[in-house]
Amino acid sequence: MRQYNEGSGIKVLDRAVAIVSAVAAGDKSLAELSDATELPRATAHRIATALEVHHVLARTDRGEWSLGPALPGYTGGPSPKLIAAAAPVLRDLVAATGESAQLYQLTGTTRTCIAAEEPESGLHNVVPVGSQLTLTAGSAAHVFAAYSRIDAPFGDNDLEQVRADGYAESVAEREVGLASVSTPVFQPDGALVAVLSISGPAERLKPSPAAKWKSELLGARNQLERAL
């Protein structure tokens, strides 16, 4: 069935929409994308590559086109693929550490918890899914500031250290008695898609949450990025 429609009179826009619509129905190889839209392969490739630059599309490890991380940001909701991939990672992280684990996405001037897992018992930090937290304090805020263009009260040296280490930590910075360590999660195309965090009582995690759980956190990040 022909999916390409030039009804708006703006040919490149109609073609771009046709390509996104085709990919939304399922990941597509270049040949499949060309067939679905009835566009020449060279045209489909050129437009899809331009959409990838803007993170509207992305490439899978099989070289197929998939929806990119920008679209959930436009619609205000997290990617179902990201949520599904994160669920077992968060469960494993909580089982390994006994602390709470969260996944955050950047939402304008806040960070929103899009997935979380809590230990079954004991004193722990609870961040309900949907919570919108500050970008001015906390380890996750440091990570977002290091990899995104946001206004944040962190120094350049601090953000350079986050990028060098691949994680950030905080103790009683956002909330008294709370500590955390966070790391960025990247799409295969290199775009920052989320921040993964471990958090818990400062009494258990101080003086350095990273020294205690860095290995587990970075391993979980690698697991999640492989799933993406």
Automatic annotation (TrEMBL):
Residues covered by the IclR-ED domain: 63-228
GO biological process entries: negative regulation of DNA-templated transcription
Protein name, as recorded: IclR family transcriptional regulator
Matches recorded under SMART domains: HTH_ICLR
Domain of life: Bacteria
Keywords: DNA-binding, Transcription, Transcription regulation
Molecular-function GO terms, alphabetical: DNA binding; DNA-binding transcription factor activity
UniProt-listed PROSITE patterns: HTH_ICLR (PS51077), ICLR_ED (PS51078)
Residues annotated as domain HTH iclR-type: 10-69
